[in-house]
Amino acid sequence: MGWIKVVGVGPGDINDMTFKAYTSLKECDVVVGYTTYINLIKPLIEGKEVISLGMRKEIDRAKKAVELALQGKNVCIVSSGDAGIYGMAGLMYEVVHKENIDLKIEVIPGVTALNAAAAILGAPVMQDFAVISLSDHLISWQVIEKRLELSSQADFVIVIYNPKSKERPENLIKAQKIIMKYKREDIPVGIVKNASREGQQVIITTLKEMANYEIDMRTIVIIGNESTFVKKGKMITPRGYIL
Do 200 and 194 touch, CB atoms closer than 8 A? Predict the structure, then answer.
């Protein structure tokens, strides 16, 4: 019987991949993943069997990884960023537990889009922060709305994943209105598209103006708190040290 490693391959650039993720990909027999993520790691998996499936085929990918491991193959199933944050790790465990399959599964952590975007912007998440996805494909908008309300009221730095898509262009505007009930309109906001990938774009703006920019599913939006400021093109949330 083989093993399954659920590998976070980082935000996009191979240089941002952890060494453990790199070695896992080198040791496996088969790589399973979403087509876009497979393309990010092509130079590392030459000569290996590759199972590439499209968007919203997560369950199919997880079941295929199990099937291959039961055949005796060592399998890496990949996610961008960290596999345990909006990735394949949870689903992989759910599938094997539901089927009561005894397989060795290991989650290999990776650098998230949040990590990459924050480093590109400067130091915007040096205090407590909340990470919220605006995708209501798997979570209801009512739940997302409540999370936005409470994290804004508590003045967390707020990191938004999946801010806007063709299917739901209005969710970002709705989120902005909720957040502006509790945060000043001039709070700094960092917008990073394609963090650590080809076509990277970086904008620092304000909460009031953030929705005026081109934002899509490949964009991370970081909304500061009351102490966040911008200096020399960098967005900084001070940790609180007295200098």
Answer: yes
Give the pairing type, strands 75-79 and 3-8.
parallel
110 vs 55: CA distance, rounded Å: 21
| Cβ density class 170-184: b for 16+ within 10 Å, e for less | ebbeebbebbeeebe
HSE-CB of 217 using CA atoms within 13 angstroms: 8
The continuous run of DSSP H or E covering 144 comes out as: helix 141-153
Q: Using 70 as the pLDDT threshold, list the residues of the chain that sit under it.
A: none
Token couple for 87: 């990735």
Instruction: Identify how many contiguous H helices and E strands the chain contains and give both numbers.
Output: 7, 13
The side-by-side arrangement of strands in the sheet containing 129-133 is 129-133, 157-161, 219-223, 188-193, 201-206
Residue 134 phi/psi, 5-degree rounding, is: -90, 5
Tokens of 22: 């790199």
How crowded is residue 201: how many other Cβ atoms within 10 Å of its Cβ?
13
- Read off the DSSP letter of residue 92: H
The partner residues of 206 in beta bridges, in order of sequence, read 188
pLDDT for position 53: 84
pTM higher than 0.90 for the full model?
A: yes
Beta strand 75-79 pairing with 30-34: parallel
